[in-house]
Specification:
This protein has about 140 residues and is α/β, with parallel strands linked by helices. The chain has helices at about 25-30, 95-100, 120-130, and strands at about 1-5, 15, 20, 40-45, 50-60, 65, 95, 105-110, 120, 140-144. It has one domain (about 1-144).
């Protein structure tokens, strides 16, 4: 895959149509949830043809229903959570720990491109402990 822009040090996690991650990220995820998620190797090249290194397309394979519908104040349309005009200010999500059921990284199956990958506090802490770069984090309230 050709990686555009000037040559530079890449972060451990990049979004390039999908999640593009390095070995460090992969190792943390595989440690907490072995044999669960898909990682497809990709060789990166700069526009001049020189190598930019190897990464993986990361596809989280846990699709869970994790929103606590009774305590969440976000608006929804039908069964899906959609981004709306004022989505950032129309309430907040609350997630249900028992629905997460010990998983560490997942996509909520009723969210349409709103938040992206969700993760447990344990996954968050493990990624930070390994110094994984290129990710932003938001903390959400949890119940039960």
């Amino acid at each position: 895959m050709e990686f555009g822009g000037p040559k530079r040090d890449l972060t451990d996690v990049n979004i390039a149509g999908a999640y593009l991650v390095d070995e460090k990220f992969k190792d943390v995820v595989d440690e907490l949830e072995p044999d669960t998620h898909q990682f497809f190797p990709v060789e990166l090249f700069w526009s001049d043809g020189s190598s930019a290194g190897q990464r993986y397309w990361f596809f989280p394979c846990n699709r869970l229903d994790t929103v606590d519908e009774e305590r969440t104040t976000k608006k929804r349309r039908g069964k899906l959570w959609h981004p709306g005009r004022d989505f950032e200010n129309d309430g907040q999500f609350v997630f249900n720990r028992s629905q997460i059921n010990g998983h560490h990284i997942w996509i909520d199956r009723f969210m349409v491109g709103i938040i992206g990958i969700l993760m447990s506090n344990q996954m968050h802490d493990a990624l930070l402990a390994e110094g994984v770069t290129g990710m932003g984090f938001n903390k959400f309230e949890e119940t039960g």
